[in-house]
Amino acid sequence: MRLSKYFVPTLKEVPNDAVVISHILMLRTGMVRMLSAGIYSFLPLGYRVMRKVSEIIREEMDAIGGQEFHLPALNPKEIWEETGRVEAFGDTMFHLKNREYVLAPTHEEIMTYHARNVVKSYKDMPQIWYQIQTKFRNESRPRSGVIRGRQFLMKDAYSFDISWEGLDKSYELHDSAYRKIFDRCGLKYFVVGASSGAMGGTGSEEFMVKSAAGEDTVAYCESCGYAANVEVATSRIDSVERDIESKSIYEISTPNVHSIDELCKFLKIEETQCAKSRIYVHNEKPILILMLGNDEVNETKLEKVLGGNVRPAHPEELKDISGADAGSIGPVGFSGRIIADNRLKDANNMFSGANKNDYHIGGIDFKRDVPAIEYADFRTVKSGEGCPRCEKHLEVFPSIELGHIFKLGTKYSDSMKALFTDEKGEEHPIIMGSYGIGVERVMACYIEQNHDANGIVWNKLLAPFQVHLLGLNLKKQEIVDACEKIYNDLNKQGIEVLFDDRDVTAGFKFNDADLLGMPIQVVIGEKKLKENKCEVKVRKTGERFDVELSELMSKVKELLG
Ligand code: ATP
Ligand code: MG
Fold first, then answer.
1. Whose CA is nearest to atom 2 of ligand 1?
2. Rounded to two decimals, what is the model's pTM?
């Protein structure tokens, strides 16, 4: 491809709302342009990468026996009503004005519809059906460029089995295919969530990458691979040790002391001697949650423990509930349910609020003074805490989900009556799995992980072109001739080459070559050409060396492995 004729509108500056590095670089390299919030056009260079990622996915899906479909994105709404998912998706699902059709946000229903009509006997299974196709989701806050689009390309696969063991097998196949796909794409990823293993379990695993653009926060141990969303993550951390002797309880005047830090400073005590109070309203009833020191309540964990409806109490409700405002609330004398984080289990000689503004209580013994107290795990784990599985430490960071594998079981086959008959002629619901990968996310996450100050650093599998050929002074006929020969030779060898044949300065060409990031740059300049040489630069390492023109082809092949 000749750059002079190729539509690659590179940019020096990008709009202010592009803050995520992959978004910035995809705009700067002319891979994509935004059409509307969360809706992107892929321009020729970007689309080449999209096709390469899709092809890697396709190869690995075919290798596990997947059969490729192409389902319509425009779906009759009735099919989605069979599973109740029109309601479940709510505003995320796009509806056409006439209300008869929806734009598919995923395709469980449509695949199940086809399975129901054709997969009728145990002899028809197992099946793995997949497609690489556009999905529509009315994401409320599309941001981070193509990472969260309202229209995006997904590889979605569905497995159909006659038994739970069969599902386990299909799930394992996808697990291994996903690892191959992400490895080939050159992504550093980790896996969150473990399959339940148990028969009939609804195991699921998310393939994640660390990214500032991520909306999930994950605790990860690099050493043993423990990874969990902070909503469920635990850590190895000391709980408070009970002192041998319990002091008696006493009230302390603490004017203007509202936080744990202020309390520690005022009383010259440690954070680990303080129990912080938070009031929530659970099914209309107040509940006091106690945390050690500055530990944070994890509201997802809290909701799991309590069930039902939970919300933080409003500041104006606190005084009615406890007798004090935030900063002076505590367990002693609190009327209502009290649950403390496990780290506070049976602690004594603790400080907490007195349920009276500007007063605290010292010498609290939870066993003696708060006999009805319950304990549970509510805390949000923090970076540096011990890994719950090994002796190393956790790191907590934002992450993006690249892919998801999920044992659906009979959720869809039950509601849509997708049944098969077994050997004895008895009917059962088909046992299903579903497996998704976001194609744009693979591209964006690759860029997040593989760039430098000058631009993208493509690997050979995802690169739009393998070689970027730069002719420096194209007013010289000998340079034009040499470039044309190399360009033709590379093309003949099936090596994708982008030839910068534009009439622009050398500096401009070098900058664009680094920005666009093809793995190998071949530079044809006057001086070297006189010696029948050219310069080769490896984008990833920045390494440059001279190569005899006669050896160029074999050198390029060697570098591309
Ligand atoms: P998230 O939690 O990030 O919204 P999800 O749980 O909604 O993801 P799935 O429904 O499991 O995602 O979809 C499968 C894959 O599709 C995801 O792993 C992700 O790679 C991709 N994906 C999901 N939503 C989007 C989106 N709005 N834009 C781009 N890719 C997406
Ligand atoms: Mg989502």
1. 401
2. 0.89
